[in-house]
Design brief:
Blueprint: E1 10-11, E2 14-15, H1 50-73, H2 75-78, E3 83-86, H3 93-100, H4 106-117, E4 129-132
Helix pairs in contact: 3-4
Length: 136
Amino acid sequence: MSAVAVLDGTTNGYAVPLPVPRRSPQPRLVSVPTGESVREVAQPALRLTRAGRLVLTSAVVLVALLVAFVALTGGAAASAPAETVTVQQGQTLSEIAAEHLTGVSIATGVSMLQDANDLASAQVQAGQTIVIPLAD
């Protein structure tokens, strides 16, 4: 019964060395300069972290979207002062359209005045202030 061998830790009958755990290198003393021999390293004025870059990028994208929105919606046209008229006694919307919107027909002018002033009908009352839209 001696012909049976246990091969734990052996290869082809030869002993295999077990791995030896590596020791960490011993700490070594390092000479650190002191006094006048120390060189002063200038610190950077600004150091952006990942979160800082994210905030900065988000702010730039937000400003760009705001500028694009104002440019596409005609923000400059909205800043022009609008002309207003106070309705006199007996004056109609068609008379106001004929007097102030000369480049368009009276029917189109009345429609433009209704749209600009959110009027449901062509009826106006004395003392009412009407905004005159810019004719295109």
